[in-house]
Amino acid sequence: MKLCPKIILEGTRLTHKTDLAFALNEHARIVGPRRYRYHSPLVSAEWCAFTPYPWGRGLVNFEPEEEDLALETYRTWVRLFELQRHYSWIVDRFHFSTIAYQASRGRTYDFRWLEDRIGPLGFHVVLCTRRPATFWAARAERLLVSGKPSQYDELDLFVREQEALREIAARSALPVLDLDMSSGDLEAACNRIADWMSATGGLWCNEHAAADAAAESAAASAPDAVG
Fold first, then answer.
1. Which residues of 131-145 are buried (b: 16+ CB within 10 A; e: fewer)?
2. pLDDT by residue (tens digit) across 163-187?
3. SS3 track for 77-101
4. How far apart are CA 163 and CA 15, in angstroms?
5. Secondary-structure class of domain 6-221 per CATH
6. pLDDT value at position 221?
7. Angle at the Cα of 132 from the Cα atoms of 129 and 133, rounded to 5 degrees
């Protein structure tokens, strides 16, 4: 059976999300054995594509006047996932991060519609976490390579965001694995995720449910008939 896992990696900063995303995208138990590197899709809500300068705004940290743009982008991603459902997708941050960030600014967003559409496609969420006492060591390591060290000044913010993400995960309709990444052991993390998704059936395409979801979405988006 074809491997086509769909994994959303969520978590605050310094939890190895991006490192894990790249590792998963080349791991034999996730995408199959390969004799050469291949361009499996890896996308991110952290892309600051709404502004023409570095460390700008995007799907997570958009301003109120960019709400329509952000929601239209989410709808576009969801539709693309539906259309390309027989393939693997690794997503580095998505709607959990948007909910958490926007809530910290006093704004509330309900993404049940999104989960209703990507759930039948087989999307699973891995919530990357770390023990609070380990953030300082992780910060010191990151500062050696960071292009913007100031973003790691307030570690308490990361601890609070981690707890907020856990609360969001508890309310989610999607399968969620809370994965402690304190050790930074990417191989162990990949195998833990593979074990979990193998047990849930998430490594393979859920063809009938995905087709039904896509058909319902297409019907809902069709223009009303005019008599």
1. eeebbeebbeeeeee
2. 999 999 999 999 999 999 999 999 9
3. HHHHHHHCCCCCEEEECCHHHHHHH
4. 13
5. alpha beta
6. 52
7. 130
User: What CA–CA distances, in Å, run from 156 to 13, 152, 165?
Assistant: 11, 10, 14
Span 113-117, mean pLDDT? 98
Kindly report the backbone phi and psi dihedral angles of residue 199, in degrees, each rounded to the nearest multiple of 5, phi listed first: -70, -35
The amino acid at residue 81 is F
Structure tokens at 113: 């519609």
Burial per residue of 69-90, b for 16 or more beta-carbon CB atoms within 10 angstroms, e otherwise: bbbebbeebbeebbeebeebbb
Question: What DSSP line would sit under the chain, residue for residue?
Answer: --B--EEEEE--TTS-HHHHHHHHTT-HHHH---SS-----EEETT--TTSSSTT---TTT--GGGHHHHHHHHHHHHHHHHHT-SS-EEEES-HHHHHHHHHHTT-----HHHHHHHTTTTEEEEEEE--GGGHHHHHHHHHTT-S-GGGGS-HHHHHHHHHHHHHHHHH-SS-EEEEE-TT--HHHHHHHHHHHHHHHTTTB--HHHHHHHHHHHHHHHSPPP--
Among the listed residues 223, 217, 42, 13, the one whose alpha carbon sits nearest the alpha carbon of residue 100: 13
Backbone torsions φ then ψ of 78, nearest 5 degrees: -60, -45
**Separation CA 93–CA 80 (nearest Å):** 17
Facing residues of 176 across strands?
Answer: 125
Supply the pTM of this predicted model.
0.89
Greatest CA separation for the chain? 67
- Please, which residues bridge with residue 6 across strands? 89, 123
